[in-house]
Batch of 2 targets.
Target 1
Amino acid sequence: MQTLATLRGLDAIVRAVAIAIGVIVAVAVPTGYLAATYVGKSDQRQYEARLSAGALSKYAYIHGSAWRFNKLRLVEIISFIEPAEDSLQQTVYDAGGGVVLTTGDSGDGPFIRGVAPIVVGTSIVGRVEVLSSLRGVFYNAAMAAILGVLLGLTTYLVVHHLPIRALRQTLDQLHLTHSQLTQQMSETRDAYEQLQQQYRLTEETADELARAVQRVELASRTKSEFLANMSHELRTPLNAAMPRTSTTAARICCRSSTTSSTCRRSRRESSICMKASSISTTSPMPASG
């Protein structure tokens, strides 16, 4: 949601910038064309007016105050100006502002004019006004406006859609990378949980083995104690019976023997058996494993 809101904010900013640039381009093209053309036409009319005024100044200098009466000659003097595209209207005025002559047709308005004085010596004896229509200029400006609108729309599309498309592609790539990272993190988490589970199983197995070892040790100690007790219980009556058995055996041997030496030997053996029996009574029997 935050990414979507950020994308929408950036989209609004880029759209506003694209609209501003498109409007500037759409307005700047016809405005720039109209301004440049108007300045160029104005300079051209002013230059033509100066040329006509200069030629008339020479003629007035020669003929004095009668220069304004020979209109045919005046027309010949100023007719050297031939407009390349626009139709011109030249009007000659005297010093009092009266119209001396008018040539040409300026067409329909609006108009642009150029004015230059007719100077003889230090005196201004009249002026020349060159007039032309700006209708063609405005027509061309309208065509430039249409072109400017097309350029503005193109600029809007380029400025708006290309960055937004690149931004969306980048965001899609970031989303894909984020999804891959999330999947890798999930897999890593699962592997970690499995390792923890295996570790717990290993600990439980180790505890069970330790308890089993303790049970085995306890059983071994119990067995050893049991065998020691049983050995003691068995030795006690046997030790009591061994001297009597040895004495009886000695007597029987003496009775059955024919010589005294044999009898003495039997008595010595009986004495040895009694000593061995006493030794075995005092020494404990080793416990079997």
Target 2
Amino acid sequence: MATFPTPVQIQTQYFKILQSIKPSINTNDSSSDFVIRGNVFAAFASGLYGDQAKVDNDTFISTSRPAALTLRGADLGLLQLNPSVSKSIGVTISGTNGTIIAVGQLQFVYTPTGALYTNTTSGVIAGGVLLVAIYALSPGQIGNVSAGGVLQVISPPTGVGASAAITNPIADGTGTETTDSYRSRLLNRLQQPPAGGNANDYRNFAFAADSSVRTVLVRRFGRGLGTVDIYITTGTSDIDTAVTNGLSIVRVPSGTLINNVQAYYNANAPLTDCASVYGPTEIAQNVTINVDLAIGITLSSVPSDSVHNPLGLTVAQLITREIGRALYKVPVGGWQIPGLANGFVVAAYIEQSIDTWLSAEMDPTTGLAIGNIPILADRQVQMLNSPFWDQVIIGNQIVAPGTITTVVGV
């Protein structure tokens, strides 16, 4: 890759040439017209060199800018995954028996986020209730809502109640695939091209099947010889945004999505393999953490930070939030530790995540606190599976926060 001169190097070279022509020029005189022209030229030439360096970087997938990356992906037939809408097969409305509901007649809003939905199935209210399927009117993970939530019916028609219960999760809503994720898929395609049905091919099948798929785990022989188990996740992929803003986190795919992906495997997977698609099983992980608070901080303090604490959470709530952030980021089947077959929820990883967000320890280089919200002088996550620090999880499991306990004093 070419190396381009810096602005200072360009300016120095310019002055050398200038002095060879006019030896009397004082290049230290900032008011000199020649010096001013030299500074402007150095800046202009540096900009050209900088742009050329970016063009050079666009030659490689690992360093390409987003626009160039999209073009490389088009050459390989792999496009960046588009956002997808959230949907649910089970929202229960209430009302007067005999009330007829047509497709698209109802609109709902989830008040905490303002996300809008409409019904995609029809029916007649009986026994005071009717179960309808819905989908979000706009794509994105903001439309995902866990089961147990409540939607408000907008301008409910006669015979329909003002609220609806979310019986089945509103799932599958995703944002546009991140540039890093897209880059990783393109590199994977170049480094591991299609090979007649190996594990990497099975992973790519899932992404090709539906644009709302975000992660894939492939397990061979999960149900015996000749079987391939594929575990997919969808929905909330930008964990940081969701956790910071208190949004629902739904990663387990709907039955509809699983069926769509299964149909793709049935049509494209090698005939000798029995491929089955599943959603992971979500399990709760309890965590106890000991903390020393920074000077002047109590568990009931509310740090003022509109970016990192937009909901105005207390210190105790922030600690719980950050443990949840770390747990939500554990991949299906857990973090892999070299030399061990199982996956794990790793206590040290939770501590590292907490440090990134909450540590008050000072960085010796910058002199600034390490954490985004500096409230913890020290922390220690207790053993997750005493007498072991880390918790084993099996290949089809995904982690969510369970009971989080904070103890003051490390």
